[in-house]
Amino acid sequence: MSHKMECVEVSKVFKGDGVSTYALEDINVTFEEGEFVAIVGPSGSGKSTILSLLGTLDLTTSGNVTYNGSPLNEYSSRKLADFRFENIGFIFQQFHLLPTLTALENVMSPLFSRKVPYNKKERAETMLNQVGLQDKYNSLLSQLSGGQQQRVAIARALVHEPNWLLADEPTGNLDTDTGEIIFDTLHGLNRNKGCGVIVVTHDSELAERADRIVEMKNGKIVRDTRKQAYA
Ligand SMILES: Nc1ncnc2c1ncn2[C@@H]1O[C@H](COP(=O)(O)OP(=O)(O)OP(=O)(O)O)[C@@H](O)[C@H]1O
């Protein structure tokens, strides 16, 4: 099975107070299995919206998002939840972690209600090791720095070994050096695990490190550039 994701004639309209906003307008784009993609563009251009649709956190107004050719609009909400668990990991600018739990508990949290054929604690420890937090298993989230918290968020997003990691401004709240470490962590996971990464960023220097840059403006893709593999 291929893990190709595709937007086919996708539009997303938000209606409120009698005003309709086209967040996305007739988007056609394909993301190939294992790609490392940056989505850039001005504020309000539709970057977060496309990420939400790819991750099935929201539905299209028209058009379809397909996974391995299968249209996600036709999935029941239960099937979508399973689809997300199997295929999608999310990270956000604000981490969305639980401050009163430890790093290890946060990483294990997506597995709490799931039956899985592996040891949950060992899996969570492996993930924390991969992001360089092997000495922080039992630290409370509130005791960690912003960069460490984001690394916990990455470990949590990857704990179920998704085929895609979708990241919305994961370096937005961090200083430049920490942002680079986070970006390099994502890159390493992409290279070593073959997990596709789509990252929304305002930072054009970070975006330059991706294999492909998709540029958005006013709900449309205005440029799509692929480059040589990251050295
Ligand atoms: N829930 C919503 N209700 C109404 N309008 C929305 C909603 N979400 C997004 N929009 C509108 O859709 C457009 C695209 O928003 P989106 O968040 O995708 O942009 P963005 O490129 O991610 O911006 P930023 O870089 O500021 O996060 C904007 O005009 C925004 O105001």
From TrEMBL:
Record-annotated ABC transporter domain positions: 8-231
Gene3D superfamilies: P-loop containing nucleotide triphosphate hydrolases
Protein name per the record: ABC transporter ATP-binding protein
InterPro entries membership: AAA+_ATPase (IPR003593), ABC_transporter-like_ATP-bd (IPR003439), ABC_transporter-like_CS (IPR017871), MacB-like_ATP-bd (IPR017911), P-loop_NTPase (IPR027417)
Pfam families associated with the record: ABC_tran
Family in the record: Belongs to the ABC transporter superfamily.
Annotated organism of origin: Virgibacillus kekensis
Top-level taxon of the source organism: Bacteria
Keyword Nucleotide-binding among record annotations: yes
UniProt-listed SMART domains: AAA
